[in-house]
Amino acid sequence: MVEDPLTTADCLQITREVGFDHLLMGGKPYTTSCPLPFQADSVRTARDVTRATLRRWGLHDLSDDAALVVSELVTNAVRYAMYAPGRHEIELLLMRVAPHVLLAVADPSDEVPRPKEPDFVSENGRGLYIVETYSQCWGWDPLARGGKAVWALFRTDH
């Protein structure tokens, strides 16, 4: 856990300035986006893209924690996208907003992510607990096209 976390207001301000609908269109500097198919192995693809992007940005030290968080976000997106009517697209977005890295996963579900009390015996229910533990802060934003982007913010030393 980061020792000097941002306040919730700071996190919300950063995400509002970024604007997920705009960012998901791609082509922005220091931004990587990757469409992910609606399948379980998208988690591995998301981890690989995250690690490669962070290495390219010179942020190798962040790659393990970020890959773990992305795994949880994509797992949740795949799980909830299956219940969304119509489309099942998922998209990974990584953005460098120095001194932060923003990771986001967009999915078509309008269901609000709700942390559960972690049950360390159960196979599920720990995802958002892990996201909260390893990131500086996390949250979600509704998308204009429907669905949401669930995001996590990391502070870098660079």
TrEMBL record:
Alphabetical list of SUPFAM superfamilies matching this protein: ATPase domain of HSP90 chaperone/DNA topoisomerase II/histidine kinase
Record key words, sorted: ATP-binding, Kinase, Nucleotide-binding, Serine/threonine-protein kinase, Transferase
Top-level lineage group: Bacteria
Chain segments annotated as transmembrane: none
Any one Gene Ontology molecular-function term assigned to this protein's record: protein serine/threonine kinase activity
Keyword Disulfide bond: no
Boundaries of every Histidine kinase/HSP90-like ATPase domain copy: 37-136
InterPro entries xrefs: Anti-sigma-factor_SerPK, HATPase_C_sf, HATPase_dom
Database matches in Gene3D superfamilies: Histidine kinase-like ATPase, C-terminal domain
Entry protein name: ATP-binding protein
Organism: Nonomuraea cypriaca
